[in-house]
Amino acid sequence: MVETAPAPGPLLSVRDVGKRYGARIGCADVSFDLWPGEVLGIVGESGSGKSTLLGCLSGQLVPDTGEVVFDSRDRGPVDTLRMSERERRHLGRTDWAFVHQNPRDGLRLGVSAGGNVGERLMANGARHYGNIRATAQDWLARVEIDPGRIDDRPRQFSGGMQQRLQIARNLVSGPRLAFMDEPTGGLDVSVQARLLDLLRGLVRDICLSVVLVTHDLAVVRLLADRLMVMKGGHVIESGLTDQVLDDPQHAYTQLLVSSVLQV
Ligand SMILES: Nc1ncnc2c1ncn2[C@@H]1O[C@H](COP(=O)(O)OP(=O)(O)OP(=O)(O)O)[C@@H](O)[C@H]1O
């Protein structure tokens, strides 16, 4: 008899996640599976619950209800809401990455570019200075920063360069899942386009899964395989990105799409 390997399960499995702020709904009844290498976009107007959901998924907020199971490299599926702070920190520097909208929230401003990238390698046990520096240089080049600027501080970089440095710092250790909160927000349009192209290439190269929050439909069109549309804390429509954007079913999604087309 030929033995076949078990089919891989979802990387992230989210069931009935909900969070309230007093009487106000942050997000409610959110369920989805995220598969290895898949990019899931979460869109919706301001206050629709995107950041609350991202916080609940990434361990920055504690949801009131639900379950978030992540298929970790070390231990297989783990319930991330019930793990210890220490275990969550370990995930945060190995399997997970978080790209903030403002690169200053995700970088150490007092440390050189090379230090910012190398730090995550050292947190994972790398000790050989020459190797760490060579890997940092390689990653600076991958995010289109001149490796000759390895000793510059983030403050000496432009906003777009800082964002690319934050991406290098996050991806250097080969995470499997990245949470991204408006990664191109706050940048001007031509810088955004280049960053999106770069991100798309990197995500494919390292088979990264991404949960991407944005209010920008052009960003999800380019990056996301699948889309969830949120309103009032609830997911009101989901599906393949092109399907949802080209043939929106919910009146709110239709409005969202048509308001962009009119711009
Ligand atoms: N710390 C908080 N305390 C009280 N209410 C909050 C808090 N954070 C969010 N909310 C409320 O929860 C709801 C969802 O907010 P959330 O920030 O998740 O939306 P969002 O879609 O990320 O918005 P934006 O695009 O403006 O960041 C809103 O009604 C908001 O007022």
From TrEMBL:
PROSITE patterns: ABC_TRANSPORTER_1, ABC_TRANSPORTER_2. PANTHER family: PHOSPHONATES UTILIZATION ATP-BINDING PROTEIN PHNK-RELATED. GO terms for molecular function: ATP binding; ATP hydrolysis activity; lyase activity. SUPFAM superfamilies: P-loop containing nucleoside triphosphate hydrolases. SMART domains: AAA (SM00382). Residues 12-257 form the ABC transporter domain. The keyword Electron transport does not apply. Keywords: ATP-binding, Lyase, Nucleotide-binding. This is Phosphonate C-P lyase system protein PhnK.
